[in-house]
Structures are given as structure tokens and as C-alpha cells.
């Protein structure tokens, strides 16, 4: 399980790279996480600018104009940056693209 220091390192890295960026695409490859990913998430996030990323305990809060996206890495999850359109592996569940860069939620346990 990612511990608090790892979650904070993840937050800092993502915030430095993505804050101020606009969502250009959302791909849900597998909605079956602990809490199902809403099917309308692409519509909700499309065109939204990411204001910044905060941490509350082990939760990551992605602040957008229309609300906050909450993520938890669970037992073995990770958020990784990749080139948008780059091949993905079988454990990548959700991808949020910010132009040429994509943030991917990877969780081998789900």
C-alpha cells in the first residue's frame, strides 16, 4: 500500500506537471474500481482546467472549476504520466489526457 510519503511525492509530481492544464480526453478502460467510475466522467471533465492537486490523508483531490475529483491509490495503485496515445498495459484503468500528456490510474489488483 502506498504510504503517506509516497502519496505526497505523487501529489507534488503531478501538481508540478499538470496544474493549470486542461483536460482534453478521458478514457475509462475498466470502471470496476472500489467505487465505480461514473460513465459520464468524460463529459464532466472534458475542457475543465485543473486548478491544482491537494492531499487529505492518503486521498488525492484534483480541483476543477466544477468540483473535485477524489482518488485513492488503494493497496497497489499508482498514478503515472505517459504520452497521450502511448500503448497502455492491462492494469491501467482510467486515463485523463491533458494535451500530449496523460495521467493513468494503474491498479493490478482490480
Secondary-structure blueprint:
Blueprint: H1 4-18, E1 25-28, H2 41-45, E2 50-56, E3 59-64, E4 67-72, E5 78-83, E6 92-98, E7 101-106
Antiparallel strand pairs: 1-6, 2-3, 3-4, 5-7, 6-7
Give a verbal description of the structure:
The protein has one domain: N-terminal domain of MutM-like DNA repair proteins (Alpha-Beta Barrel). The strands form 2 sheets. A 4-stranded antiparallel β-sheet has the order 1-6-7-5. A 3-stranded antiparallel β-sheet has the order 2-3-4, covered by helices on one side. The model has no long low-confidence stretch (mean pLDDT 93). The chain is an alpha+beta fold and 110 residues long. The protein is built from 2 helices and 7 strands.
**What structural category arises from helix and sheet content?**
alpha+beta
Distance between the termini: 14 Å
Shape: globular
Number of helical segments with 4 or more residues = 2
Strand content: 35-45%
What fold name goes in the CATH topology slot? N-terminal domain of MutM-like DNA repair proteins
Share of residues in helices: 10-25%
Radius of gyration: 13 Å
How would you state the average pLDDT, rounded? 93
DSSP strand tally? 7
Question: Which regions contain 5 or more consecutive residues with pLDDT less than 50?
Answer: none
State the CATH superfamily name. MutM-like, N-terminal
Amino acid at each position: 500500500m502506498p504510504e503517506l510519503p509516497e502519496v505526497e511525492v505523487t501529489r507534488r509530481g503531478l501538481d508540478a506537471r499538470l496544474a493549470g492544464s486542461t483536460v482534453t480526453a478521458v478514457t475509462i478502460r475498466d470502471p470496476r474500481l472500489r467505487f465505480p467510475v461514473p460513465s459520464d466522467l468524460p463529459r464532466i471533465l472534458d475542457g475543465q482546467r485543473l486548478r491544482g492537486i491537494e492531499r487529505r490523508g492518503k486521498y488525492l483531490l484534483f480541483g476543477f472549476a466544477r468540483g473535485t475529483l477524489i482518488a485513492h491509490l488503494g493497496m497497489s495503485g499508482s498514478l503515472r504520466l505517459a504520452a497521450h496515445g502511448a500503448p497502455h498495459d492491462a492494469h491501467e484503468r482510467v486515463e485523463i489526457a491533458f494535451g500530449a500528456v496523460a495521467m493513468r490510474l494503474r491498479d493490478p489488483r482490480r
